[in-house]
Design goal:
By secondary structure, the protein is of the alpha+beta class. It has a domain at about 10-55: 3-Layer(aba) Sandwich (YefM-like fold). The chain is about 45% helix and about 15% strand. The protein contains six helices and three strands, in the order E-H-H-E-E-H-H-H-H. It has a three-stranded mixed β-sheet with strand order 1-2-3.
Length: about 100
Amino acid sequence: MAMKMLRAPVSVADARNHLTRLVRDVERGGPVPLSRRGKPVAVLLSLDAYRELAGERTSFWSALTRFRSGADIAAERIEPDDLRHLRDRAPGRSPAW
């Protein structure tokens, strides 16, 4: 989920005085950046946006297993020669010891 800060930051002091309005704004339209002394310090998010950001991440292995179970590799007719050019066979760089 890509979130853009479309609105100007709200100072923490103003947020304290107008929290109800800001919560309504967040529920309707997106995140509200908060600042202290002109510097960004926090973001007020909707619960849905927070859950999406804080959700459990899938491990690489789980994602690979799920991909493999749903993909019909044999139907793609991929031959070893089709992949040979993808790997760099150069010996690499010399370490600077």
